[in-house]
Amino acid sequence: MMNALTEFDVGDEERLVRDSVSRMMQDTRKPIVVNGEITAPGRHAASYMNELEALGISELVVTDGGIDVPTVRRVAIICEEAGAHLFLGPTVESLVVPFITASGLLPEFKVISADGLAIPAFGSSLINPFSNVQVVRESNSLHIVGKITRVPFGPMASSYVIAGQIGNSPCLLLISANAKGLIIRKEDMADGTQRAVINLDGCSVPVSSLIAEGASAQKALQLISDLLMLGVSAQLAGIAARVLQLGCEHISTRTQFGRPLAAFQALQHRAANDFTAVEISRAFLYQMCDYWDEERNRRPLLHALLAKTAQTAIDTAKSSIQMHGAMGFTAEHELGWNLKAAVALSTRYGDIAGHRRLFAEFDIAYW
Q: CATH number, domain at 318?
């Protein structure tokens, strides 16, 4: 993080979390150029996750107290640092199973177990993913029909949290990637990460794969969706802070006509506008964390937060590239990869226009 940016951490514990995660991500980050060949940062997603697991990320985030404001703030800190360090792995996605296990929303399931990395497979839709998958329950098994597109990090997961319907009742399933009949097709993203199309037609799993049904499934899905939107927003805020830093460092050290670029008023104004936009986005992020318990207004504010942080990250990255000139477009430079990551993140769970529209549909009385 830039030293000039406001510190939103509250107390020594949060600063310790940020320092620990930042140091680990900085030490393990893979270079863009390896043995003379350019490699996208997202291609190292699997090794990144091994490092996160070694750090004990889920234990660091989820405490015995359940999902409270301090826990949510730790998620935001971790994801913000992931964005700032181009740590392009399923950071927030990997926390879904620990979160719904600790939430207390599924009392009939004391422990939700999954081997390896379990991620949510809702595609780009967080509003009503139940309708994509139909489940037929028989005596000892569940037969599934449906297809889920655009599943982030789908190819590297060992199991999936999937939303479906049994008749007209919503349900959540925890399904192994090796389940009978499940077919995965990989898709490459511009930032080097991969997403998947998951075909479930003819897939058959044990009844024990059903982890929630009815109202409990609906509530668990809302928590998962809110967590995903918060985590992606925090990653975008981290990217925005990083590209701002790169732009300010460049104009401070690069000279033109015998003067630093930072001496030109047009660039000063551009940098000041970028700084203000980044500060507003980060302030919004941590204010959202502090208001997490206000469930009535949480969802519309998360839509607004994701739209704001996505737009800020993309605009600030473009601005910094313009400050760098042709250098900012080269594959060897970090800046272009930050822009690709921001664009990919901004469409991971719906696009900017969609989140703005969803925010506008809520009757929220904050003004």
A: 1.20.140.10
